[in-house]
């Protein structure tokens, strides 16, 4: 499917600062960019770079003495979403996991799987099938954590979310990741654009490594799993933040959009189908 994605962000700058943005769609084996445009007004020093094995694309820009910045990104992205029968998804023992999946077994800043082990095993330890186990995790988060915009901040972790039972997409993703890792299932953070997300925004969910491939899950149920455009991956949001600010900069506007390129027939994967079918946004590597 082809999607047209765009983001427009504006910042007020108090003194010379540096921003590192992650708003560019990834380029990988299943995600091809046919058109792309990035602009900063007024013009300022900026560079694009890829700094990690995940293929995340970053832009580092220096504000200089400019007091206001307007940043715009747009792209047409061709995405391959692979739908896989759950019956064909089997457990992958740690001894057989791809080496690149191993780091996603360990606790991280926002995903303290070591502190959630007892909860994870009490709730999901008796479920044998690994895919069904992750679906049960997603369902439990959806049923037990209330989605409340503005209820958390950049310091909120998975452990905090279990305690306060509220959060936004980032928090739902962190909790899903932590519970999976506690059950010896590698899991990683996913940031992206999402088709028909309401209200439009950058979206976070997570991927779990099952049966030798990464499958995407969304505990908020706000996005179609086959309507996602990947921006970044990481151990948690610290690796794939939309904006990292070094200095004194205040966000004043953020507009995000993801539309289907005309002339295509799109059929979203509904909730019932997710229990029987997994979705992979295969990057061409594990």
Brief sketch in words of this structure:
This protein is of the alpha+beta class and about 290 residues long. It is built from 5 helices and 16 strands. It has 2 domains: about 1-80, Immunoglobulin-like, CATH 2.60.40.2250; about 80-240 and about 270-280, C8orf32 fold.
Helix content bin: 10-25%
State which percent range the strand residues make up: 35-45%
Runs in which pLDDT lies below 50 for 5 or more consecutive residues are none
Can you summarize the main beta sheet? Answer: 4 strands, antiparallel
Strand order across the largest sheet: 3-6-1-15
Structural class: alpha+beta
* Strand tally: 16
Q: What sequence of helices (H) and strands (E) makes up the elements?
A: EEEEEEEHHEHEHEEEEEEHE
Q: Using the 3D structure, state the CATH architecture of the largest domain.
A: Roll
Average residue pLDDT: 94
Apparent shape: globular
Q: Number of folding domains?
A: 2
CATH topology (level 3) name of the largest domain: C8orf32 fold
Question: What's the CATH class of the largest domain, please?
Answer: Alpha Beta
Number of helices: 5
Radius of gyration (CA) equals 19 Å
User: What distance separates the N and C termini?
Assistant: 22 Å
Task: Give short descriptive properties of this protein.
286 residues; alpha+beta; Immunoglobulin-like; C8orf32 fold; 2 domains; four-stranded antiparallel sheet
What does this structure look like?
- By secondary structure, this protein is α+β, with helices and mostly antiparallel strands.
- The chain folds into two domains: 2-79, Sandwich (Immunoglobulin-like); 82-239 and 268-280, C8orf32 fold, CATH 3.10.620.
- It has five helices and 16 strands.
- The chain has helices at residues 117-124, 130-144, 158-164, 169-182, 271-274, and strands at 2-13, 18-21, 31-41, 46-50, 57-62, 68-79, 82-85, 146-147, 166-167, 187-194, 203-210, 213-217, 228-234, 243-246, 249-260, 277-280.
- A four-stranded antiparallel β-sheet has the order 3-6-1-15, with no helix packed on it. It has a four-stranded antiparallel β-sheet with strand order 4-5-2-14, with no helix packed on it. Strands 12-11-10-13 form a four-stranded antiparallel β-sheet, covered by helices on one side.
- A hairpin with a 2-residue loop joins strand 11 and strand 12 (213-217).
- Helix 2 packs antiparallel against helix 4 (169-182) and helix 3 (158-164) packs across helix 4.
- The longest helix has 15 residues, at 130-144.
- The radius of gyration is 19 Å and the shape is globular.
- It starts with a strand and ends in a 6-residue tail after the last strand.
- The relative contact order is 0.24.
- The mean pLDDT is 94.
